[in-house]
Amino acid sequence: MSVLVFAELDNGSIKKSSLEAIYYGSEVAKAKGSSVTVLAIGESSNEALAIAGKYGASKVLWASDARLNVASIQAYSSVLAEAVNATSAEFVILSKSSLGDAVSARVSAKLKASIVSNVVDLPDFSSGVTVKRSIYTGKAFATVALTADKKVIAIKKNAVNVVEGDGSASVENFAPSLNDADFAVKVTGTHKASGQVSLPEADLVVSAGRGLKGPENWGIVEDLANALGAATACSKPVSDLDWRPHHEHVGQTGIKVSPNLYIACGISGAIQHLAGVNSSKVIVVINKDPEAPFFKAADYGIVGDVFDVLPRLTKAIQAAK
Amino acid sequence: MKILVCITNVPDTTAKISFTDGDTKFNKTGVQYICGPYDDYALSRAVELKEQHGGTVTVLNVGEAESEQVIRKCLAIGADDAIRVNTEPTDSYFVAEQIAHIASQENYDLILMGRESIDFNSGVIHGLVGEMLGIPSLSPVMKLEIDGGVAKMTREIEGGKEDIEASLPLVLGCQEPIAEWKIPNMRGIMSARTKPLKVVEPVGVGLTITEKYALPAPKGAVKMIPAEEAEKLIDLLKNEAKVL
Ligand SMILES: Cc1cc2nc3c(=O)[nH]c(=O)nc-3n(C[C@H](O)[C@H](O)[C@H](O)COP(=O)(O)OP(=O)(O)OC[C@H]3O[C@@H](n4cnc5c(N)ncnc54)[C@H](O)[C@@H]3O)c2cc1C
Ligand SMILES: Nc1ncnc2c1ncn2[C@@H]1O[C@H](COP(=O)(O)O)[C@@H](O)[C@H]1O
After folding, report:
1. ipTM attached to this prediction
2. Where are the domains of chain A?
3. d(Cα B174, Cα B193) in Å, to the nearest integer?
4. Closest Cα to atom 47, ligand 1: which residue?
5. What is the pTM of this model?
6. Which of A95, B32, B40, B153 can pair with A17 through a Cys bridge, CB separation 3.0 to 4.6 Å?
7. Is B167 near chain A, with CB under 8 Å?
């Protein structure tokens, strides 16, 4: 009857979105009078994993086999399913991400579990187990009942307000039985921009569109992002034109972000763009056209020229520090 | 090469979403339906691969009769035949069961899907189907070449991408720039009318039940800041919105 959380690691540390999942798991456990175990897979350390205790976990299972250092969808799914069986977990909680999607899906097929993704709130246990999930790319919500014995819940990033405690989790080695077939997919190369704030994980995002006129002008966007400690993003035409890398493109057909603050610079606010950013807590729009549709979705707006406004905002932030 | 492409019949990306019957049913009135944008990439790449390597492309939709307009469009784009599993696609596990059931009756080299549907946005059907069939699943795939029995792919990961290789058969969730969206031509539209579209009945049961829908709370009015006083924004974000 326990709760198992799958935590993703980034350079050995539990990702922020996974800390949200651990906290969510601890709230589920509280409601059910049980405890939370975390599964972490890959290179890490006892200290880095013990942090899970602050978010309500009592125990971390650490699968540190060297073959698991490169994330493999199939192998990770097998390890998670084994951990579910070892802990007799009823609930499997994780954060929605491209790895999370794949792993949650395969695990739910292995366990014949109910699976609900994009969950935005804690479950309601008043009759069975129901959760609220986002659908139609943020344009609506659905209340969904999970009817199978085992339940896989993938939560949307930034959907729960995490409260940090002072607990510490014990870290135990977990040695899964690995199967060669689970390593049939070979990763032959990795290309990752390092040292930047990861967009899907970011609390603050500065995003720019075709209003920037060309890739040579992105300096003012990056300066503002750096001053804030924000990640950078862009509209679809900007990545289609190769002004910016594809993994920065947000919207209906790009990454969905839900930061605390989304600053849109020179983006018109087409409905397909809004679909990727509409669950941001606060939206700021800077556009020289007062009729730009984005202003209707904004909390704060400035009608102005990005080439004038952005450098002034950067200065104001630096001055306020 | 035999390719199965799974497509959704979904409201157009500009559609206004609303519900009826005490918020228990999606309101279809006035809504234009399209093939899911990511599914469209999967289909376009499948048609290109067929042109390069020969073989067939079969389109599969789990949906009610109203899906047939979108299925015919997929046939017009270049799929050879289509299968519709006649049921309302209410639950990811249930939809995946239908796809796995159909796929287990033929030896498909590739099962292509979109990275996610734009109604449920779960991004899980490929993984569910892969596991049900006991073959690898990968998503989101942004480049796909076939060389003998091996697929060479590029997959997007957080903050970058990775190159991967795997032997067929595979289940892949696709996204741009894997292919350019294709627009059906007149000949395609004519020939689509006579291409086979088989309707079959569903198997199995779902593991979730959708009880109710809701719309997000309407956004409050925007607070405008004159451009001359742009710096005030920082103070508002700090002290009013409390996000800095
Ligand atoms: C199926 C489908 C899926 C799509 N998916 C996505 C998606 O995922 N993400 C996405 O972004 N788009 C998507 N689109 C495209 C979308 O419809 C818009 O075309 C796109 O978002 C527009 O990008 P933009 O705002 O950068 O450019 P534009 O619409 O050209 O807007 C540029 C804006 O910059 C302003 N501007 C110009 N100069 C300045 C200046 N000096 N200072 C201040 N403001 C200035 C202009 O007033 C204008 O509002 C999709 C479209 C379709 C059909
Ligand atoms: N009802 C359906 N019929 C056929 N394919 C589907 C259906 N629902 C989802 N898919 C496929 O699975 C992909 C991922 O869907 P989802 O897991 O709902 O985000 C979609 O892009 C489609 O290719």
Report:
1. 0.93
2. 2-183, 204-320
3. 27
4. A289
5. 0.93
6. A95
7. yes
